[in-house]
Amino acid sequence: MRNVKEIKEVAHQKPETPASTGNREPIQWTKSTCPYCGIGCALEVGVENGKVVKVHGMKGHPINNGKICHLAETLPHVFDASGRITRHMIRYDGRLVPVTLKEAITHTATELRRIIESHGPNAVAFYGGAANLCEEYYLINKLIKGCIGTNNIECSTRLCMVSSAAGFVSTFGADIPPTCYADIEEADLFFIAGNNMAVSLPVVFERVRAAKKKNNAMVIVVDPRRSETTQIADIHLQIWPGTDVALNNGLAHVLLKEGFVSEPDVEYYASGLQQLKTFLEEYPPSRVSKITGCPEDQIIMAARAIGRAKAMLSFWFQGYNHSTQAVFKNNTLHNLSLLTGNICRVGAGPLSITGEANALGNRWIGALSHLLPGVRQVANYQHRKEVADFWGIPVEKIQPVPGRSIIEIIKGLHSGDVRALWVAHTNPAASLPNTSWIEEGLNKAEFLVVQDIFHPTETTMLADVVLAAAQWCEKTGTFISSERRIELVEKLIEPPGDARPDYELIWSVARAMGFEKEFPYTSPEEVFEEMKGITRGRVCDMGGVTYERLRGKVGPQLPCPEAEHPGTPRLFTDMQFPRADGRAALLARNYIEPAETPDAEYPFVLITGRLFWHFNTRTRTGRIPRLNDIEPDNFVEIHPNDAARLGITAGDRIEVKSRRGCAFGKARITDRVLVGTVYMNMHYGKALWVGDGKLANLVTNPVYDDFSKQPEFKFSAVSVSK
Ligand SMILES: Nc1nc2c(c(=O)[nH]1)N[C@H]1C(S)=C(S)[C@@H](COP(=O)(O)OP(=O)(O)OC[C@H]3O[C@@H](n4cnc5c(=O)[nH]c(N)nc54)[C@H](O)[C@@H]3O)O[C@H]1N2
Ligand SMILES: Nc1nc2c(c(=O)[nH]1)N[C@H]1C(S)=C(S)[C@@H](COP(=O)(O)OP(=O)(O)OC[C@H]3O[C@@H](n4cnc5c(=O)[nH]c(N)nc54)[C@H](O)[C@@H]3O)O[C@H]1N2
Ligand code: SF4
Ligand SMILES: [Mo]
């Protein structure tokens, strides 16, 4: 068992505002990319006397043209926030003790080797974040899938975008987001489902708001809560949580019945129309209204708006992906685009914006246990052969079956089948569902190494080794944003103390494990130049990209195969999809209830989500007083009728309890949530200020979508009491 006593002392020191650096040198401005959400806003970073002192948006950049949000504005404070780790640490006698870089690397490599030798390669696993650089995922793939020979590589994108990726694969044939942000200004209907973009993607939200005004566009928002995004909605479909598949089927039913579908056109680029038509007979608005709770005439009105739109752009997010029906929600949304010809045209189609900075790079470079670098799959022999040949290893070295998903890795820690876990740039002890079970699994690890920039986090608290990482502009590498645009983040300042870039930590461990020949790198640019080769001829082709081309300039949208190539703003413009018959697939998907439905003991549904002021597990934003002080603690939104029935008044401390655990928060009584539902934010783990018992994931359910293995964070049956 790890001893967490020492951490509590650190955890209760309040954050401080960084001191001013004085004014000895003029500020040097360099282009960079925001390390938070997956929009990929271009920034200009001001450095003075070796410190980041100011950040502003890059004017003229096609993504954000100078605009940024409060998260990017406060970035200068993440460098010297309290709890920044400057030394590597190894746990001795229950306490984490500072050691040299060499000791930490040698110890990590020795432990991994020992476990592989006695229990085989599948006893180890790597779990990274979706904001790790492309270069980092390339290195870790080469080490774990290529040299060690296990496919147990996972990424926080399993909690985030994996269902969108699986939706693209099943409908269009590959994980290839087709549209781009410039489509926003061309659309006249925005279908925004399960996406509170006013909070989560503020810069895109402002573009949508402006485009609505300019084009007199219509906005349909689908959300069980009256979210901040509904302020621009013409129609708010306030569905019962989890019922999107039924809603989308109902909308498609009306589109077909009312003659909005040009069948010969659709048959040309999509298969499955006749089967879908028959199937959708079962989804008349009357039935869909009963399932979703939306009035029948509102469903018909929304369908007609979709049918009449000249260009519909759809956005969806965690209200879709955090569900046991996540991939089906994606498929049925794409059905709406395909049926109405809102695809392969300017201003129309699915615009998949992602949560974290290296939005697409992580998926395209193979960050999940079923993927290989270059938008390839481990289950595909040809793909394995191409990657193995590229690395100069026998094809048999790469296992032909997917490794474990992160929840399966935790199950493996519980059963003893997985013994070592290496975590970098993600905080699973706070972000995975059913925290007590997660912590227990992490505690059972024979060896847990965590690379982070802060300590304590909920996960570093449990580590056997903590490797101090450099962050954002303390290191150099590439991100690929949600519109397939590749950008360079450059090292502008030195990391503190012994902290090192994640790529350097990875190649150092690899060498110490005996793979000196395979990991000869001295710079991320060398890694990038090698990685480019594995993307040749693929949709992520970076052949025409160099660090020099990216430095200070707008990066191209991939694919970009040649130096002179301008990049590719939109895909599938020739109506050809990467499926056997060249057509996209219209898929008949039945609505199924979420895994755990309310009952007498647990009569409420808990929805979880996020706040404007905090980012994910709050390790950064919680340490910046300007942000933290606005919402320093968790709360529970509850409908006035439910509150009255339970005798709850505003500000009461209430308990939200599931079969797995309970979490506390102050009551906020509001009719933005539906009767029978409560809402909590995901941000409040125990490592910072608030103490134990505030984290929504203490309550959530570790069940997941069968196809994408993404957990159902947005639907847990709970009881609520004072
Ligand atoms: N400020 C801030 N910005 C962020 C983040 C952050 O933590 N803070 N995190 C980033 C990350 S990693 C991500 S993934 C994104 C997430 O961004 P979003 O997905 O926009 O955010 P969430 O709040 O998780 O959920 C969105 C909405 O889904 C709704 N919802 C719940 N259940 C259902 C359902 O069954 N159907 C439908 N249609 N809707 C439902 C919720 O009520 C909520 O309003 O934000 C990114 N941006
Ligand atoms: N209940 C509930 N749970 C959820 C969600 C929800 O809506 N509800 N949302 C899910 C979603 S969409 C997501 S994406 C996940 C996010 O879950 P996580 O990935 O766990 O969240 P982050 O807080 O972004 O974690 C990033 C970690 O990396 C560290 N870090 C920052 N920069 C660097 C760096 O350069 N190097 C290294 N090594 N470390 C760095 C940070 O300090 C932090 O500990 O949470 C999921 N969990
Ligand atoms: S909107 Fe997203 S990418 Fe843009 S500045 Fe804010 S957090 Fe960064
Ligand atoms: Mo996410």
How would you explain this protein's 3D organization?
The structure is a single chain. The chain is α/β, with parallel strands linked by helices. Helices cover 30% and strands 17% of the residues. The chain is built from 24 helices and 27 strands. The model is unreliable at 1-19 (pLDDT under 50). The structure holds ligand MGD (2 copies), iron/sulfur cluster and molybdenum atom (MO).
Give a nutshell description of this structure.
With about 725 residues, the protein is α/β, with parallel strands linked by helices.
How does the SSE layout of this entry go?
Blueprint: H1 5-11, E1 28-33, E2 42-48, E3 51-57, H2 70-73, E4 88-92, E5 95-99, H3 101-119, E6 124-128, H4 134-148, E7 153-155, H5 162-172, E8 189-193, H6 197-200, H7 202-215, E9 218-222, E10 235-237, H8 244-257, H9 263-269, E11 270-271, H10 273-280, H11 285-292, H12 296-308, E12 312-316, H13 318-321, H14 326-339, E13 349-350, H15 361-364, E14 371-372, E15 376-377, H16 381-391, H17 406-415, E16 420-424, H18 428-431, H19 435-444, E17 447-452, E18 465-468, E19 477-480, E20 486-489, H20 502-512, H21 524-535, H22 547-550, E21 584-585, E22 604-609, H23 625-628, E23 635-638, H24 640-646, E24 653-657, E25 662-669, E26 677-681, E27 716-721
One ligand MGD binds next to helix 6, helix 13 and strand 22.
